[in-house]
Amino acid sequence: MKVLTVFGTRPEAIKMAPIVKELEKRENIKSVVAVTGQHREMLDQVLKIFDIVPDYDINIFKSGQTLTEITTNSMLGLEKIFDEVKPDVLLIQGDTTTVFSAGLAAFYKKIKIGHVEAGLRSGNIYSPYPEEANRKLTSVLTNYHFAPTKNNRENLLKEGYNEENIYITGNTVIDALKYAIDDNYVFEDELLNKIDFENKKIILLTSHRRENIGQPMENIFKAVLDVVREEDVEVIFPIHLNPKVREIAYKYFKGEEKVHLIEPLDYLPFSNLMNKVYLVMTDSGGVQEEAPSLGKPVLVLREETERMEGVEANTAKLLGTDYKVIYDNLKELLHNEEEYNKMAQAVNPYGDGRAAKKIIDILEEEFKK
Questions:
Q1: Which of 47, 90, 206, 216 supports an S-S bond with 212, CB 3.0-4.6 Å?
Q2: Are 354 and 306 in contact (CB under 8 A)?
Q3: Residues taking part in catalysis
Q4: What Rg, from alpha-carbon coordinates, does the chain have?
Q5: 53 and 196, same structural domain?
Q6: Coiled-coil region(s) at which residues (predicted)?
Q7: So what's the pLDDT on residue 306?
């Protein structure tokens, strides 16, 4: 069986790395890896961490690229690769524009598609944007839906997909995290090494979503700032490279001694930072899956989430972007030890770290049929 994996961004690379590594172990599978380079530097960092050398790199990245450019350039580059490789199966992951582009290009060639992390839904086509549309459009083209959880499977069944083509596997992000965490990890940034994680309540904040830029982000940062000024806590905020995010971050946090504004972190330091902090506040998707597996409560700074399993399992709270809601919930977790422990000790709903093996086992069985 010839399996082509395609990915283009850092989050995809992290979640596909365990799959690529599993494919490499199988003697009866020819594994081919192609990357679009939708992200460039961040993607390359992950490839290096997991020791993955792509067979093809179409390198579409350019500053300020539009969604249309990403889609068309990915499809044109991948079409040539599909013609050359002639894979039996394409494996794609998640909800990026690379994922949809690769799926559509493969469909045009009548290549079977396996969608890793299938069935996530927020219910709002514009939130997250464009990811919600990407994942729904990709599902239409998919032959093998690898759903991380029962909820994801139910979403697909409600949309009319054949249950025989839906498999619950857990999420490969947990596989990757097991590889990354080191309790004795030393950061390159000396500032992080000097922070007293043992004796102080340290909050990890990330915020970058397009739909939060503007007043929602102002509300988030003001609530965090007010709590920081009232409590004996510190915040670490790796600021996204988006100039609009940085402008709002500097407006609220520049000069605040207890808020550490740092550059975006690579996967390894970020994962190990997550492992050391007291709690996580985020509008990211993947962090909602990773933090619970490390026993860290997550406050989700979004109006909707496609990862409701964490909310239902009480590993995460969906707060939205209202100032008072964020302020009150952050205060509660800092003072209410019982509530904190309930969240920290809740069972992670995203799997046991063996998702990649399950996915490749399924593909092998299907190929035999």
A1: 216
A2: no
A3: 95, 117, 131, 208, 210, 240
A4: 20
A5: no
A6: none
A7: 87
